[in-house]
């Protein structure tokens, strides 16, 4: 899960309060994910040039030991480089990995889904990009030095996959506005995630906690012409 240190003037529980999101994930869905031996969850961070912010991450790591700390500067304009370094680190540390999900900490993950089961979990981040282990081993690792790192991370990742002729599948179950049968993760693109104040409310809502069908139904693209968060809230209350 992509994360970062918190700036000193950050409003508590806001979109940029990354520690609050990490603490919420630890208390909720990460405890459930830990039951599965084949699932590893880590907060992915780089090195912060602000010594106070860097020290806060190191203190948090000593308590929880759930960070993947990459040897690069953690800046917004360095996210594409952080992305390729993350996939390389996963491929090197977990050579038998089948799939790797790069998630942000701003959204709600409802289920851990694998081939034989769709298991409800509590909360987490947006499953934005899922790469197979084969792509990481055959595309990321051997071409790491020539993968261009610039521009938005999602666009840059698309360039890499297009250049490698990889098969791409856009699955809208990973990014929904409402808790439908096929929803895996909740997100509002206009909000760049899912506001933290809604997470507990979603978890308490029976429609978002019910056991998912198997196999999960395919979900078409969901239009953002209606007020997503407002509708979601109305459905919950």
Automatic annotation (TrEMBL):
Pathway: Protein modification; protein glycosylation. Its cofactor is Mn(2+). Keywords: Glycosyltransferase, Golgi apparatus, Manganese, Membrane, Signal-anchor, Transferase, Transmembrane, Transmembrane helix. One of its GO terms (molecular function) is galactosyltransferase activity. It is a single-pass type II membrane protein. It holds the Pfam family Galactosyl_T. It is found in: Golgi apparatus membrane. It is an enzyme of class 2 (transferase). Its main location: Golgi. Belongs to the glycosyltransferase 31 family. This is Hexosyltransferase. It comes from Tetrabaena socialis.
């Amino acid at each position: 899960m992509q994360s970062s240190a918190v700036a000193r003037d950050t409003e508590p529980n806001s979109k940029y309060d990354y520690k609050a999101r990490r603490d919420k994930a630890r208390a909720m869905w990460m405890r459930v994910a830990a039951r599965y031996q084949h699932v590893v969850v880590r907060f992915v961070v780089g090195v912060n040039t602000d010594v106070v912010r860097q020290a806060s991450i190191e203190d948090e790591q000593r308590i929880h030991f759930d960070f993947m700390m990459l040897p690069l500067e953690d800046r917004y304009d360095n996210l594409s480089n952080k992305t390729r370094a993350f996939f390389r680190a996963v491929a090197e540390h977990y050579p038998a990995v089948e799939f790797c999900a790069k998630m942000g900490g701003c959204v709600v993950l409802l289920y851990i889904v694998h081939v034989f089961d769709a298991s409800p979990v509590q909360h987490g981040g947006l499953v934005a990009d899922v790469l197979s282990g084969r792509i990481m081993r055959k595309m990321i690792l051997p071409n790491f030095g020539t993968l261009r790192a610039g521009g938005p991370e999602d666009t840059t990742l698309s360039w890499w996959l297009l250049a490698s002729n990889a098969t791409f599948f856009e699955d809208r179950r990973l990014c929904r506005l409402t808790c439908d049968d096929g929803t895996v993760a909740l997100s509002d693109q206009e909000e760049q995630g899912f506001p933290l104040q809604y997470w507990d409310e979603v978890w308490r809502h029976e429609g978002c906690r019910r056991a998912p069908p198997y196999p999960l139904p395919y979900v078409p693209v969901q239009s953002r012409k209606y007020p997503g968060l407002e509708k979601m809230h109305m459905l919950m209350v």
